[in-house]
Specification:
Layout: H1 38-47, H2 54-64, H3 78-88, E1 94-101, E2 106-112, E3 118-125, E4 130-133, E5 137-139, H4 148-152, E6 154-157, H5 160-175, E7 188-191, H6 201-212, E8 226-230, H7 234-243, E9 248-252, H8 258-264, H9 273-287, E10 291-297, H10 305-315, E11 320-326, H11 340-352, E12 357-359, H12 373-378
Parallel strand pairs: 4-7, 7-8, 8-9, 9-10, 10-11, 11-12
Antiparallel strand pairs: 1-2, 2-3, 3-4, 5-6
The structure holds S-adenosyl-L-homocysteine.
S-adenosyl-L-homocysteine binds near residues 252 and 296.
Length: about 375
Protein backbone atom coordinates (compact mmCIF):
# COMPACT_ATOMS: atom_id res chain seq x y z
CA UNK A 1 0.00 0.00 0.00
CA UNK A 2 1.58 3.20 -1.17
CA UNK A 3 -0.24 5.29 1.38
CA UNK A 4 -0.50 2.88 4.28
CA UNK A 5 -1.70 5.05 7.13
CA UNK A 6 -0.81 2.48 9.76
CA UNK A 7 2.53 2.73 11.46
CA UNK A 8 2.62 5.37 14.16
CA UNK A 9 -0.01 5.76 16.85
CA UNK A 10 -2.90 8.05 16.03
CA UNK A 11 -3.14 11.59 17.28
CA UNK A 12 -4.96 10.53 20.40
CA UNK A 13 -2.34 7.91 21.21
CA UNK A 14 -4.43 5.01 20.04
CA UNK A 15 -2.81 2.04 18.46
CA UNK A 16 -3.00 2.17 14.65
CA UNK A 17 -5.91 0.35 13.15
CA UNK A 18 -5.24 -3.03 11.70
CA UNK A 19 -5.85 -1.64 8.24
CA UNK A 20 -4.06 -4.42 6.48
CA UNK A 21 -5.01 -6.91 9.16
CA UNK A 22 -6.43 -9.74 7.14
CA UNK A 23 -4.27 -9.21 4.13
CA UNK A 24 -2.48 -12.31 2.97
CA UNK A 25 0.29 -12.61 0.43
CA UNK A 26 -1.28 -13.03 -2.96
CA UNK A 27 -0.01 -13.61 -6.43
CA UNK A 28 -0.10 -10.60 -8.72
CA UNK A 29 -2.66 -10.52 -11.50
CA UNK A 30 -1.15 -11.19 -14.94
CA UNK A 31 0.34 -8.14 -16.64
CA UNK A 32 -2.07 -6.27 -18.87
CA UNK A 33 -1.53 -3.31 -21.17
CA UNK A 34 -3.72 -1.15 -18.93
CA UNK A 35 -1.11 -1.58 -16.17
CA UNK A 36 1.50 0.14 -18.31
CA UNK A 37 1.87 3.54 -19.92
CA UNK A 38 2.11 3.39 -23.70
CA UNK A 39 5.92 3.44 -23.62
CA UNK A 40 5.93 0.32 -21.44
CA UNK A 41 3.52 -1.43 -23.81
CA UNK A 42 5.87 -0.61 -26.69
CA UNK A 43 8.73 -2.27 -24.82
CA UNK A 44 6.72 -5.44 -24.30
CA UNK A 45 5.72 -5.50 -27.96
CA UNK A 46 9.33 -4.93 -29.07
CA UNK A 47 10.40 -7.76 -26.77
CA UNK A 48 8.12 -10.05 -28.78
CA UNK A 49 9.94 -9.01 -31.94
CA UNK A 50 7.03 -6.90 -33.16
CA UNK A 51 7.20 -3.30 -34.38
CA UNK A 52 6.46 -0.97 -31.44
CA UNK A 53 3.47 0.69 -33.21
CA UNK A 54 1.57 -2.54 -32.59
CA UNK A 55 1.28 -1.32 -28.98
CA UNK A 56 -0.89 1.56 -30.20
CA UNK A 57 -2.96 -0.79 -32.32
CA UNK A 58 -3.60 -3.10 -29.37
CA UNK A 59 -4.33 -0.12 -27.15
CA UNK A 60 -6.90 1.20 -29.62
CA UNK A 61 -8.63 -2.16 -29.60
CA UNK A 62 -8.84 -2.22 -25.83
CA UNK A 63 -9.45 1.44 -24.98
CA UNK A 64 -11.27 2.53 -28.13
CA UNK A 65 -13.15 -0.56 -29.27
CA UNK A 66 -13.32 -2.31 -25.91
CA UNK A 67 -12.15 -5.65 -27.18
CA UNK A 68 -9.44 -8.07 -26.09
CA UNK A 69 -10.35 -10.71 -28.67
CA UNK A 70 -7.57 -11.49 -31.13
CA UNK A 71 -10.05 -12.46 -33.87
CA UNK A 72 -11.48 -8.92 -33.83
CA UNK A 73 -8.05 -7.34 -34.41
CA UNK A 74 -8.12 -7.52 -38.16
CA UNK A 75 -5.54 -4.78 -38.60
CA UNK A 76 -2.90 -7.03 -37.02
CA UNK A 77 -1.17 -9.80 -38.97
CA UNK A 78 -2.94 -13.05 -38.19
CA UNK A 79 0.16 -14.74 -36.77
CA UNK A 80 0.88 -11.85 -34.42
CA UNK A 81 -2.59 -11.56 -32.87
CA UNK A 82 -2.45 -14.40 -30.34
CA UNK A 83 1.05 -13.77 -29.02
CA UNK A 84 0.34 -10.04 -28.63
CA UNK A 85 -3.01 -10.61 -26.93
CA UNK A 86 -1.50 -13.22 -24.62
CA UNK A 87 1.29 -10.86 -23.62
CA UNK A 88 -0.78 -7.73 -23.07
CA UNK A 89 -4.48 -8.55 -22.99
CA UNK A 90 -5.07 -11.44 -20.58
CA UNK A 91 -8.72 -11.73 -19.51
CA UNK A 92 -8.61 -10.49 -15.91
CA UNK A 93 -12.25 -10.61 -14.87
CA UNK A 94 -14.87 -13.28 -15.42
CA UNK A 95 -18.52 -12.38 -14.88
CA UNK A 96 -19.83 -14.62 -12.12
CA UNK A 97 -23.27 -13.06 -11.87
CA UNK A 98 -25.20 -10.28 -13.60
CA UNK A 99 -28.19 -8.54 -12.10
CA UNK A 100 -30.20 -5.72 -13.53
CA UNK A 101 -33.14 -3.50 -12.69
CA UNK A 102 -34.77 -0.35 -14.02
CA UNK A 103 -35.56 -2.25 -17.23
CA UNK A 104 -31.86 -2.94 -17.69
CA UNK A 105 -30.56 0.60 -17.17
CA UNK A 106 -28.88 -0.42 -13.90
CA UNK A 107 -26.66 -3.47 -14.19
CA UNK A 108 -24.53 -4.93 -11.52
CA UNK A 109 -21.80 -7.43 -12.28
CA UNK A 110 -20.07 -9.67 -9.81
CA UNK A 111 -16.61 -10.45 -11.18
CA UNK A 112 -14.25 -13.23 -10.28
CA UNK A 113 -10.55 -12.40 -10.52
CA UNK A 114 -7.75 -14.74 -11.63
CA UNK A 115 -7.20 -15.84 -8.02
CA UNK A 116 -10.87 -16.27 -7.14
CA UNK A 117 -11.49 -12.94 -5.41
CA UNK A 118 -14.91 -11.37 -5.96
CA UNK A 119 -15.49 -7.73 -6.86
CA UNK A 120 -18.50 -5.77 -8.02
CA UNK A 121 -19.13 -3.02 -10.51
CA UNK A 122 -22.36 -1.25 -11.38
CA UNK A 123 -23.41 0.52 -14.58
CA UNK A 124 -26.12 3.16 -14.16
CA UNK A 125 -27.65 4.81 -17.19
CA UNK A 126 -29.42 8.12 -16.68
CA UNK A 127 -31.01 10.31 -19.35
CA UNK A 128 -27.91 12.51 -19.54
CA UNK A 129 -25.03 10.26 -18.50
CA UNK A 130 -23.76 6.76 -17.82
CA UNK A 131 -21.94 6.21 -14.55
CA UNK A 132 -19.76 3.21 -13.81
CA UNK A 133 -19.24 2.49 -10.12
CA UNK A 134 -16.03 0.48 -9.74
CA UNK A 135 -14.22 -1.46 -7.04
CA UNK A 136 -10.62 -0.64 -6.14
CA UNK A 137 -9.98 -3.52 -3.75
CA UNK A 138 -11.33 -7.01 -3.21
CA UNK A 139 -12.92 -6.43 0.19
CA UNK A 140 -11.90 -3.48 2.35
CA UNK A 141 -9.84 -2.98 5.49
CA UNK A 142 -11.67 0.09 6.79
CA UNK A 143 -14.26 -1.86 8.82
CA UNK A 144 -17.13 0.65 8.71
CA UNK A 145 -19.88 -1.24 10.56
CA UNK A 146 -22.77 -0.23 8.27
CA UNK A 147 -20.99 -1.34 5.08
CA UNK A 148 -21.20 -4.90 3.77
CA UNK A 149 -17.69 -4.77 2.32
CA UNK A 150 -16.32 -3.45 5.59
CA UNK A 151 -17.65 -6.54 7.36
CA UNK A 152 -15.75 -8.89 5.07
CA UNK A 153 -12.26 -7.44 5.56
CA UNK A 154 -9.61 -6.89 2.93
CA UNK A 155 -8.63 -9.64 0.52
CA UNK A 156 -6.25 -7.68 -1.70
CA UNK A 157 -5.68 -4.57 -3.75
CA UNK A 158 -6.83 -4.69 -7.35
CA UNK A 159 -4.30 -3.98 -10.06
CA UNK A 160 -4.69 -0.96 -12.30
CA UNK A 161 -5.89 -3.14 -15.16
CA UNK A 162 -8.42 -4.95 -12.93
CA UNK A 163 -9.95 -1.57 -12.11
CA UNK A 164 -9.89 -0.31 -15.71
CA UNK A 165 -11.32 -3.60 -17.04
CA UNK A 166 -14.53 -2.99 -15.07
CA UNK A 167 -15.08 0.26 -16.97
CA UNK A 168 -14.09 -1.22 -20.32
CA UNK A 169 -16.62 -4.03 -19.80
CA UNK A 170 -19.37 -1.45 -19.26
CA UNK A 171 -18.20 0.57 -22.25
CA UNK A 172 -18.42 -2.53 -24.41
CA UNK A 173 -22.01 -3.26 -23.35
CA UNK A 174 -22.95 0.34 -24.15
CA UNK A 175 -21.15 0.42 -27.48
CA UNK A 176 -22.82 -2.85 -28.45
CA UNK A 177 -26.24 -1.38 -27.71
CA UNK A 178 -26.84 -3.93 -24.94
CA UNK A 179 -28.06 -1.28 -22.50
CA UNK A 180 -31.54 0.11 -23.19
CA UNK A 181 -31.38 3.62 -24.65
CA UNK A 182 -29.28 2.86 -27.70
CA UNK A 183 -25.51 2.79 -28.16
CA UNK A 184 -23.70 5.02 -25.70
CA UNK A 185 -20.52 5.75 -23.81
CA UNK A 186 -19.37 5.71 -20.21
CA UNK A 187 -19.35 9.37 -19.18
CA UNK A 188 -18.64 9.11 -15.43
CA UNK A 189 -16.63 6.81 -13.19
CA UNK A 190 -17.04 6.73 -9.41
CA UNK A 191 -14.71 4.81 -7.11
CA UNK A 192 -17.60 3.88 -4.84
CA UNK A 193 -17.65 0.13 -5.25
CA UNK A 194 -15.76 -2.21 -2.97
CA UNK A 195 -12.61 -1.01 -1.28
CA UNK A 196 -10.91 2.14 -0.09
CA UNK A 197 -9.35 3.68 -3.20
CA UNK A 198 -6.76 5.74 -1.35
CA UNK A 199 -5.49 2.62 0.45
CA UNK A 200 -4.59 1.29 -3.03
CA UNK A 201 -3.13 4.61 -4.05
CA UNK A 202 -0.69 3.79 -6.85
CA UNK A 203 -3.06 1.47 -8.72
CA UNK A 204 -5.99 3.86 -8.37
CA UNK A 205 -4.05 6.90 -9.58
CA UNK A 206 -2.70 4.92 -12.53
CA UNK A 207 -6.26 3.71 -13.25
CA UNK A 208 -7.49 7.32 -13.25
CA UNK A 209 -4.77 8.15 -15.77
CA UNK A 210 -5.69 5.20 -17.99
CA UNK A 211 -9.38 6.09 -17.81
CA UNK A 212 -8.81 9.74 -18.65
CA UNK A 213 -5.83 9.86 -21.00
CA UNK A 214 -6.88 10.02 -24.66
CA UNK A 215 -6.93 6.91 -26.86
CA UNK A 216 -4.57 5.08 -27.42
CA UNK A 217 -2.88 5.95 -24.11
CA UNK A 218 -6.21 5.50 -22.27
CA UNK A 219 -10.00 5.65 -22.60
CA UNK A 220 -10.49 9.40 -22.93
CA UNK A 221 -13.10 9.92 -20.18
CA UNK A 222 -13.14 13.49 -18.80
CA UNK A 223 -11.16 13.89 -15.57
CA UNK A 224 -13.88 16.05 -14.12
CA UNK A 225 -16.26 13.12 -14.50
CA UNK A 226 -14.20 10.84 -12.25
CA UNK A 227 -14.92 10.75 -8.51
CA UNK A 228 -12.62 9.17 -5.93
CA UNK A 229 -14.41 8.45 -2.66
CA UNK A 230 -12.49 8.02 0.59
CA UNK A 231 -13.10 7.45 4.30
CA UNK A 232 -10.52 10.19 4.85
CA UNK A 233 -6.91 9.06 4.47
CA UNK A 234 -5.54 12.53 5.05
CA UNK A 235 -2.00 11.93 3.83
CA UNK A 236 -3.29 10.37 0.62
CA UNK A 237 -5.77 13.21 0.02
CA UNK A 238 -2.85 15.65 0.11
CA UNK A 239 -0.90 13.46 -2.27
CA UNK A 240 -3.85 13.22 -4.63
CA UNK A 241 -4.20 17.01 -4.67
CA UNK A 242 -0.54 17.25 -5.73
CA UNK A 243 -1.15 14.90 -8.69
CA UNK A 244 -3.17 17.67 -10.35
CA UNK A 245 -5.59 15.13 -11.74
CA UNK A 246 -8.63 17.36 -11.13
CA UNK A 247 -10.81 14.42 -10.22
CA UNK A 248 -13.70 15.03 -7.85
CA UNK A 249 -13.02 14.07 -4.25
CA UNK A 250 -15.79 12.53 -2.19
CA UNK A 251 -15.29 12.25 1.56
CA UNK A 252 -17.39 9.72 3.48
CA UNK A 253 -18.05 11.74 6.60
CA UNK A 254 -21.26 10.19 8.01
CA UNK A 255 -20.96 12.16 11.25
CA UNK A 256 -19.90 15.74 12.07
CA UNK A 257 -18.55 14.86 15.53
CA UNK A 258 -15.63 12.62 16.46
CA UNK A 259 -17.48 10.70 19.13
CA UNK A 260 -19.95 9.22 16.64
CA UNK A 261 -17.57 9.15 13.67
CA UNK A 262 -15.11 7.03 15.67
CA UNK A 263 -17.76 4.29 15.66
CA UNK A 264 -19.10 4.69 12.09
CA UNK A 265 -15.75 5.19 10.36
CA UNK A 266 -13.04 3.58 12.51
CA UNK A 267 -10.26 5.41 10.62
CA UNK A 268 -11.53 8.51 12.42
CA UNK A 269 -9.48 7.38 15.40
CA UNK A 270 -6.46 8.10 13.23
CA UNK A 271 -7.65 11.21 11.38
CA UNK A 272 -10.46 13.16 12.98
CA UNK A 273 -13.25 15.18 11.42
CA UNK A 274 -11.37 18.50 11.52
CA UNK A 275 -8.26 16.97 9.90
CA UNK A 276 -10.29 15.22 7.20
CA UNK A 277 -12.20 18.38 6.38
CA UNK A 278 -9.01 20.48 6.38
CA UNK A 279 -7.53 18.06 3.84
CA UNK A 280 -10.73 18.29 1.78
CA UNK A 281 -10.61 22.11 1.74
CA UNK A 282 -6.95 22.00 0.69
CA UNK A 283 -7.96 19.62 -2.10
CA UNK A 284 -10.70 22.02 -3.20
CA UNK A 285 -8.29 24.97 -3.11
CA UNK A 286 -5.63 23.19 -5.17
CA UNK A 287 -7.98 21.66 -7.74
CA UNK A 288 -10.85 24.15 -7.80
CA UNK A 289 -13.16 21.16 -7.54
CA UNK A 290 -16.15 21.08 -5.23
CA UNK A 291 -15.81 18.32 -2.64
CA UNK A 292 -18.67 15.90 -2.18
CA UNK A 293 -19.39 15.08 1.47
CA UNK A 294 -21.05 11.68 1.67
CA UNK A 295 -23.42 11.11 4.58
CA UNK A 296 -25.39 7.88 4.97
CA UNK A 297 -28.50 8.74 6.97
CA UNK A 298 -29.05 6.13 9.68
CA UNK A 299 -32.23 6.36 11.71
CA UNK A 300 -31.63 7.57 15.25
CA UNK A 301 -27.84 7.32 14.86
CA UNK A 302 -26.60 10.30 12.84
CA UNK A 303 -29.79 11.96 11.57
CA UNK A 304 -30.60 14.26 14.51
CA UNK A 305 -31.39 17.90 13.77
CA UNK A 306 -28.47 19.08 15.91
CA UNK A 307 -26.06 16.98 13.83
CA UNK A 308 -27.46 18.56 10.68
CA UNK A 309 -26.79 21.99 12.22
CA UNK A 310 -23.28 20.99 13.27
CA UNK A 311 -22.55 19.61 9.82
CA UNK A 312 -24.01 22.75 8.24
CA UNK A 313 -21.79 24.98 10.36
CA UNK A 314 -18.68 22.95 9.43
CA UNK A 315 -19.43 23.17 5.71
CA UNK A 316 -20.95 26.65 5.39
CA UNK A 317 -19.06 28.79 2.91
CA UNK A 318 -16.87 25.91 1.74
CA UNK A 319 -16.49 24.54 -1.77
CA UNK A 320 -18.60 21.51 -0.90
CA UNK A 321 -21.93 19.86 -1.24
CA UNK A 322 -23.53 17.11 0.80
CA UNK A 323 -24.69 13.89 -0.77
CA UNK A 324 -27.11 12.21 1.59
CA UNK A 325 -27.39 8.45 1.13
CA UNK A 326 -30.42 6.73 2.65
CA UNK A 327 -28.83 3.80 4.47
CA UNK A 328 -29.09 0.55 2.59
CA UNK A 329 -29.25 -1.85 5.54
CA UNK A 330 -26.87 -4.78 5.33
CA UNK A 331 -28.23 -8.22 6.20
CA UNK A 332 -28.49 -8.72 9.94
CA UNK A 333 -27.93 -5.05 10.73
CA UNK A 334 -30.09 -3.40 13.37
CA UNK A 335 -29.77 -0.05 11.58
CA UNK A 336 -32.30 1.33 9.15
CA UNK A 337 -32.57 4.33 6.86
CA UNK A 338 -33.86 7.56 8.35
CA UNK A 339 -37.58 8.24 8.39
CA UNK A 340 -38.72 10.60 5.62
CA UNK A 341 -39.51 13.39 8.10
CA UNK A 342 -36.04 13.18 9.66
CA UNK A 343 -34.41 13.16 6.22
CA UNK A 344 -36.44 16.20 5.14
CA UNK A 345 -35.49 18.10 8.28
CA UNK A 346 -31.82 17.17 7.81
CA UNK A 347 -31.91 18.55 4.27
CA UNK A 348 -33.76 21.68 5.40
CA UNK A 349 -31.21 22.49 8.10
CA UNK A 350 -28.23 22.01 5.80
CA UNK A 351 -29.86 24.26 3.24
CA UNK A 352 -30.52 26.85 5.96
CA UNK A 353 -26.72 26.99 6.35
CA UNK A 354 -26.43 27.63 2.64
CA UNK A 355 -24.95 24.17 1.99
CA UNK A 356 -26.02 22.51 -1.28
CA UNK A 357 -27.57 19.07 -0.67
CA UNK A 358 -28.55 16.18 -2.87
CA UNK A 359 -30.15 12.92 -1.81
CA UNK A 360 -28.58 10.02 -3.64
CA UNK A 361 -30.96 8.02 -5.72
CA UNK A 362 -31.33 4.53 -4.37
CA UNK A 363 -31.31 2.77 -7.66
CA UNK A 364 -30.07 -0.76 -7.60
CA UNK A 365 -31.29 -1.42 -4.10
CA UNK A 366 -33.29 -4.39 -5.29
CA UNK A 367 -30.11 -5.88 -6.77
CA UNK A 368 -28.10 -5.54 -3.57
CA UNK A 369 -26.76 -2.28 -4.93
CA UNK A 370 -25.09 -1.35 -1.68
CA UNK A 371 -21.41 -1.78 -1.55
CA UNK A 372 -20.36 -5.41 -1.10
CA UNK A 373 -23.74 -6.99 -0.65
CA UNK A 374 -23.71 -9.05 -3.79
CA UNK A 375 -20.28 -10.48 -3.11
CA UNK A 376 -21.34 -11.26 0.46
CA UNK A 377 -24.35 -13.18 -0.82
CA UNK A 378 -22.20 -15.45 -3.00
CA UNK A 379 -19.51 -16.21 -0.44
N1 LIG B 1 -14.22 3.30 0.76
C1 LIG B 1 -14.72 4.43 0.04
C2 LIG B 1 -15.53 4.10 -1.19
C3 LIG B 1 -16.51 2.96 -1.17
S1 LIG B 1 -18.15 3.08 -0.53
C4 LIG B 1 -15.53 5.31 0.95
O1 LIG B 1 -15.88 4.86 2.02
O2 LIG B 1 -15.78 6.45 0.59
C5 LIG B 1 -19.01 4.39 -1.32
C6 LIG B 1 -19.98 5.09 -0.36
O3 LIG B 1 -21.06 4.22 0.04
C7 LIG B 1 -19.30 5.54 0.93
O4 LIG B 1 -19.73 6.83 1.25
C8 LIG B 1 -19.83 4.53 1.93
O5 LIG B 1 -19.75 5.01 3.24
C9 LIG B 1 -21.23 4.32 1.44
N2 LIG B 1 -21.88 3.12 1.97
C10 LIG B 1 -21.31 1.93 2.30
N3 LIG B 1 -22.23 1.07 2.77
C11 LIG B 1 -23.43 1.71 2.74
C12 LIG B 1 -24.75 1.34 3.10
N4 LIG B 1 -25.02 0.14 3.60
N5 LIG B 1 -25.72 2.25 2.92
C13 LIG B 1 -25.44 3.48 2.42
N6 LIG B 1 -24.22 3.90 2.06
C14 LIG B 1 -23.20 3.02 2.22
Amino acid sequence: MASDPAGSPGPRGLAPLALAGRRRETARPPRHLADLPLAGRREVVAGLGQPPFRASQLSRHFFGRYTDRPEEMTDLPRAARDPLAQALLPRLLTAERELSCGAGTTRKTLWRTFDGALVESVLMRYPDRVTMCVSSQAGCGMACPFCATGQAGLTRNLSTAEIVAQVVAGARLLADGQVPGGPGRVSNVVFMGMGEPLANYASVVAAVRRLTDPVPEGMGISRRSVTVSTVGLVSAIARLAAERLSVTLAVSLHAPDDELRDTLVPLNRRWQVDEVLAAAWDYAAVTGRRVSVEYALISGINDQAWRADLLGSLLAGRLAHVNLIPLNPTPGSKWTASRPAAQREFVRRLEAHGVPVTVRDTRGREIDGACGQLAASVR
